[in-house]
Design brief:
The longest helix has 40 residues. This protein is 84% helix and 0% strand. By secondary structure, it is an all-alpha fold.
Length: 520
C-alpha cells in the first residue's frame, strides 16, 4: 500500500505540472493557428520543430532515460550518493561532447536531411527553404534538452519530480513570448518560433541546473572517457532508441508521408495530435516517469510482489483516465477543435480536416499510454533488446498501413495507421511480459477493468444525447461554441464519475489519499 501511494503521489506531481504545461501548449497552438493557419509557413515550422523533438523523445527521453535511471538507481542503492554522482558526471561529459558533434553535423547536412524527413517539400521550394532554415535554428535545442533529460532523470531517481515536470512550462512560455514579441523583427512568425525553441532549451537547462544544486546534487564536467559504466549505458541505450520511441518513430513516419500529401496535411496532423497529447502527456508521461524508478528500486530489493502491484495499479490508473477520454474525443472532435483553434487563419475547413484526424488518433489513446506503463516492465530489468524487436515489427506495420491508407483517406489514414500500430505494440508487450511472469493481472484489476469499460459506455450515451441537444441550441444562437463544449464535458465527466463510483471502477478514497499526499 505504501508503494502504491508513493506511485500515485508521484503521478499526481508529474501530472499536475504536465497539465499546466498542456494548457499553456494549447495557448501556444491557438496563437499558431490564428497567426499562421495551416499554410506553408506552419507546415515548415512544424517539421523544423518535429526534428529535434523526435531525437529528444527518441534518445533523451526515451532510450537514454530508460537505460540511465535504472543504472543510476542501482549505483545509489549499492554504493551511495557519491558513486552515483560520479557515474552521472561520467555520462554527462560524454553526452555533451557527443551532442555537440551530432548537432553540428546535422545542421550542416540539413538540406539533405530534409529530403529524407520531408520529401514532399522538395516540390515546393518555399516550404523546403523555410523548413531548412528553421530547422537549423531549432536544432541546438537538442543539446540543452538532452542534458535536461539527464538532470531530470537524476532528480526523479532522488524522488524529486516537480522541477523536471515543470520544464515543459518553460518551453511553452518561451514560444508564446517569441511568437508575440519577435514576429515583427524576423522573416516570418515561424522563424520567431524557431528562435523561441532555441532559447527555451537554454532556459530549461539553467532551471534544472539550479534544481540539482538545490537538491545538493550538482554535476560537473570531466574529460570525456568511455568507461565500462558508460559503455554499459550505451549498450542498453542503443536498442532502446527504437524500443522506447516506437510511438515517436511512427509519428515521424506520419510527417514524412504527410509531406507528400496536399498542403496543410502536416498541420492538420499536428493540431489533432496536440489535442490527443493532453491525456497522453498528463497521464502517460506521468505514469511512465514515476513508475520506472519505483520498479527499479523494488526489483533491486527483491520485492517482486510489490513490483507486480505497482504495474497493476499503474495500468489501472492509466486506463481510468484514457478510456473515457478516448471515447469523448471520438464523439465531439469538431466541437473541441473549433473552440481551440478556429479563428484567424484557421477556418471551418481546417477544423473539419483536423477533427477527422483527431478521431483516428484517439482510437489509439489508451494504447499510447499503456506503452508508457509497460515499457518500465522491461527497462527496470535492464532489458532494452526485447522492446526493440517488438518496435521493429510495429514500425513496419505502421509504414505498410500508411502506404495503404494514405490514398483513400489522405492524412486521416496516417493517423489511423499510427493508432492501430500502437495497439499491436501493446499486444506484443503484454504477451511477452505475461510469458515471463513479469505481468500478472491481479484480482482488483480484473474486477475494475470491465466496470471501467461499462462506465465509459454509459458516458458515451450521455455525451451523444447531450451533444444533439446542445448543438441545436448553438444553431439557434442560444449558446456560444465554448459554452456547448463546456456543457458536454461537464455532463460527460459527471456521468462517468457517478457511474464509475457506483460500479466500483474507481475508488474515491485512493484518489483522495493520492491528492492529499501529493500536496504535502
Amino acid at each position: 500500500m505504501v508503494a502504491q501511494m508513493i506511485l500515485l503521489r508521484s503521478i499526481a506531481t508529474v501530472g499536475g505540472f504536465t497539465l499546466i504545461s498542456r494548457f499553456l501548449g494549447f495557448a501556444r497552438d491557438i496563437l499558431i493557428a490564428a497567426i499562421m493557419g495551416a499554410g506553408p509557413v506552419a507546415d515548415a515550422f512544424l517539421v523544423a520543430f518535429k526534428l529535434p523533438n523526435f531525437f529528444r523523445r527518441l534518445f533523451a527521453e526515451g532510450a537514454f532515460s530508460a537505460a540511465f535511471v535504472p543504472l543510476f538507481t542501482r549505483h545509489m542503492s549499492e554504493r551511495g550518493h557519491d558513486a552515483a554522482r560520479h557515474f552521472a558526471q561520467e555520462v554527462l561529459s560524454v553526452l555533451v561532447v557527443a551532442l555537440l558533434f551530432f548537432v553540428t553535423a546535422l545542421q550542416v547536412a540539413m538540406p539533405w536531411i530534409m529530403y529524407i524527413f520531408a520529401p514532399g517539400f522538395s516540390d515546393d521550394p518555399l516550404r523546403f527553404d523555410l523548413a531548412v532554415s528553421m530547422a537549423q535554428i531549432t536544432f541546438p535545442y537538442l543539446i540543452f534538452i538532452s542534458v535536461v533529460s539527464q538532470l531530470g532523470g537524476v532528480l526523479n531517481a532522488l524522488g524529486k519530480f516537480a522541477a523536471a515536470a515543470a520544464t515543459p512550462i518553460i518551453l511553452n512560455l518561451c514560444l508564446i513570448i517569441a511568437l508575440l514579441g519577435l514576429s515583427g523583427f524576423v522573416e516570418t512568425p515561424g522563424h520567431a518560433l524557431a528562435w523561441g525553441v532555441a532559447a527555451a532549451g537554454a532556459a530549461q537547462f539553467v532551471w534544472l541546473v539550479f534544481a540539482c544544486h538545490q537538491a545538493n546534487f550538482t554535476l560537473f564536467l570531466f574529460r570525456p572517457r568511455l568507461t565500462p559504466r558508460v559503455k554499459r549505458l550505451v549498450k542498453l541505450m542503443l536498442p532502446g532508441a527504437v524500443g522506447a520511441g516506437v510511438v515517436q518513430i511512427n509519428l515521424l513516419i506520419d510527417v514524412v508521408i504527410a509531406s507528400l500529401l496536399p498542403i496543410g496535411s502536416v498541420s492538420f496532423l499536428y493540431f489533432a495530435d496536440r489535442v490527443n497529447q493532453l491525456p497522453l502527456g498528463v497521464i502517460g508521461v506521468a505514469v511512465g516517469t514515476a513508475l520506472l524508478p519505483l520498479l527499479s528500486r523494488q526489483l533491486h530489493d527483491g520485492a517482486d510482489v510489490d513490483a507486480m502491484g505497482s504495474m497493476n495499479r499503474a495500468s489501472e490508473f492509466a486506463l481510468l483516465f484514457t478510456v473515457p477520454a478516448s471515447v469523448a474525443l471520438m464523439i465531439i472532435p469538431e466541437q473541441i477543435v473549433a473552440v481551440l483553434f478556429e479563428r484567424g487563419a484557421f477556418g471551418a475547413a481546417e477544423t473539419k480536416a483536423t477533427a477527422a484526424a483527431l478521431v483516428a488518433y484517439s482510437i489509439g489513446l489508451p494504447a499510447y499510454v499503456m506503452i508508457k506503463v509497460l515499457g518500465p516492465g522491461f527497462f527496470a530489468r535492464e532489458d532494452t533488446v526485447t522492446p526493440v524487436k517488438i518496435a521493429a515489427l510495429c514500425v513496419a506495420f505502421n509504414l505498410v498501413l500508411n502506404l495503404l491508407l494514405m490514398g483513400p483517406l489522405l492524412h486521416v489514414g496516417i493517423a489511423l495507421a499510427t493508432a492501430m500500430s500502437a495497439w499491436v505494440n501493446v499486444g506484443f508487450m503484454v504477451l511477452v511480459l505475461r510469458r515471463r511472469g513479469h505481468l500478472i493481472l491481479d484480482a482488483r484489476f480484473k474486477r475494475v477493468a470491465p466496470r471501467l469499460l461499462l462506465a465509459s459506455a454509459v458516458m458515451a450515451v450521455a455525451v451523444v444525447l447531450s451533444k444533439e441537444q446542445l448543438v441545436d441550441l448553438k444553431v439557434a444562437n442560444a449558446l456560444a461554441p465554448w459554452q456547448v463544449l463546456t456543457a458536454i464535458i461537464v455532463v460527460g465527466l459527471s456521468v462517468f464519475a457517478a457511474t464509475a463510483g457506483f460500479l466500483g471502477a474507481a475508488r474515491l478514497s485512493d484518489i483522495k489519499r493520492m491528492l492529499g499526499r501529493s500536496s504535502r
